[in-house]
């Protein structure tokens, strides 16, 4: 609605009003419903702080620990991680601070404060922007018209926003919590609630890089993790490639039967298969060791996964089991890709006198590799974090006395698991998780860039 008698009000003044009282600038712009929504958000956050705090009882003075509400005490707890540990008394544990709970609550409160800060800035900018449009056009825009315009222009963002908020608290919050643990002394020797956790800065990272036992373990496990990831990826890829080429040959009969047989290792859960192989290669009771003993190939039972003098044997067996579990995926993937290779290419090659080997290396391999290269990189990343096969098959064994809480077949991910759940070295486990994340993220980013997944259409 146009009104020639509109009083020109400076944009900054309307924005200032909304900065002082949420939604007041919108009310001045005659957008009453929008102003009411912003006002409810602002007053609701303040009310939540007052209700969750102890502001009615400040006879002993105000302190964030005793009187602060959810937001202020949350930030205090995140900064201090508590000041009074709980102690065991005659009636049980006394009242005190739990550092880990304070950290979790602090992260949650910080995330909510960031969301409220975003809405607060939006409230100010919206009031000033709306007033600028009113001053220029001489028209009042109602709240209903504003919401209709927003719904039409930002529909995708509105629909995505609930998922984004949910993702913030389900995915981002645990990641932030894990990263923060790496900068504390949270371990089995310093466990709440009877003890407080403290911020230690980069001390844990310095320990990994400067203390020989930790550095030796880290470099050894890291080197084996890379060897495992590369060999496991290459072997499953090319063996799956080989099987797919054989099944694609016109001389092979009953192709559906053979594909069904070879896909079974992939269909059975990897954990079950790993446990079956672990039982088969059990050094004391396994049938494989007994069979080799019965036919005279060995004079005693072989401890496949526990003999510290034959660590290579355990690693080779782990790679073979992973090959058994992983090749069907590439067989199915490459088999589907082969069906899209034009037969005319092979006909032309035959006319030119090319052999079967030349057709494979010059036609089949380049075409299939180009189509499957991004998935090959993803398989490398998956094998880098292949927790199931190693943990359920070897449990990281054979033991290595020169390593800190790691065995000869442990990957970084299984070592991280042992540090946290088995040995309760949460701070060192968090450091390892950050390192693993940086490595995996680097390869994932490289894969996405090579596959042009970041390019906009």
UniProtKB/TrEMBL annotation:
Alphabetized InterPro entries for the sequence: MetI-like (IPR000515), MetI-like_sf (IPR035906)
Main location: membrane
Record field: transmembrane: 36-56, 100-122, 154-184, 221-245, 257-277, 313-338, 359-381, 425-448
Keywords: Cell membrane, Membrane, Sugar transport, Transmembrane, Transmembrane helix, Transport
Protein's UniProt keywords contain Transport: yes
One CC-aspect GO term: maltose transport complex
Name assigned to this protein: Maltose/maltodextrin transport system permease protein
CDD domains: TM_PBP2
Protein purpose: Part of the ABC transporter complex MalEFGK involved in maltose/maltodextrin import. Probably responsible for the translocation of the substrate across the membrane.
Any Pfam family the entry gives: BPD_transp_1
Keyword Transmembrane helix: yes
GO molecular function, one term: ABC-type maltose transporter activity
């Amino acid at each position: 609605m146009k009104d020639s008698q509109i009083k020109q009000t400076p944009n900054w003044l309307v924005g200032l009003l909304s900065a002082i009282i949420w939604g007041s600038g919108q009310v001045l712009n005659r957008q009453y419903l929008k102003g009411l929504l912003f006002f409810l958000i602002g007053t609701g956050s303040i009310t939540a702080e007052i209700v969750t705090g102890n502001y009615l009882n400040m006879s002993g003075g105000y302190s964030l620990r005793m009187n602060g509400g959810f937001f202020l005490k949350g930030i205090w707890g995140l900064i201090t991680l508590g000041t009074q540990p709980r102690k065991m008394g005659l009636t049980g544990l006394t009242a005190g601070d739990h550092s880990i709970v304070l950290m979790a609550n602090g992260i949650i409160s910080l995330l909510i404060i960031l969301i409220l800060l975003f809405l607060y800035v939006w409230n100010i900018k919206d009031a000033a922007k709306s007033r600028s449009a009113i001053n220029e056009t001489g028209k009042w825009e109602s709240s209903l018209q504003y919401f209709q315009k927003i719904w039409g222009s930002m529909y995708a963002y509105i629909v995505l926003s609930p998922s984004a908020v949910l993702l913030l608290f389900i995915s981002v919050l645990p990641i932030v919590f894990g990263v923060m643990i790496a900068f504390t002394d949270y371990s089995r020797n310093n466990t709440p609630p009877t003890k407080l956790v403290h911020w230690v800065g980069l001390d844990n990272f310095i320990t990994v890089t400067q203390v020989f036992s930790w550095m030796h373990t880290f470099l050894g496990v890291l080197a084996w993790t890379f060897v495992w990831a590369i060999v496991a990826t290459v072997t499953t890829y090319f063996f799956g490639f080989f099987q797919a080429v054989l099944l694609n040959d016109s001389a092979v009969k009953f192709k559906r039967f053979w594909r069904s047989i070879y896909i079974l290792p992939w269909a059975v859960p990897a954990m079950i298969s790993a446990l079956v192989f672990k039982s088969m290669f059990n050094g004391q009771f396994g049938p494989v060791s007994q069979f080799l003993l019965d036919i005279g190939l060995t004079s005693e039972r072989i401890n496949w996964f526990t003999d510290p003098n034959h660590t290579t044997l355990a690693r080779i067996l782990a790679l073979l089991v992973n090959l058994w579990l992983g090749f069907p995926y590439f067989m199915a993937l490459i088999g589907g890709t082969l069906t899209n290779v034009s037969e005319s290419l092979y006909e032309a090659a035959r006319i030119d006198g090319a052999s079967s080997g030349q057709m494979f290396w010059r036609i089949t391999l380049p075409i299939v590799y180009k189509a499957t290269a991004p998935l090959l990189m993803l398989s490398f990343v998956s094998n880098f974090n292949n927790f199931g096969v190693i943990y359920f098959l070897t449990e990281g064994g054979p033991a290595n006395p020169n390593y800190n809480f790691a065995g000869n077949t442990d990957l970084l991910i299984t070592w991280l698991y042992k540090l946290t759940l088995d040995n309760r070295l949460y701070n060192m486990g968090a450091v390892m998780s950050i390192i693993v994340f940086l490595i995996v993220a680097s390869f994932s980013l490289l894969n996405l860039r090579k596959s042009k997944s970041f390019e906009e259409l």
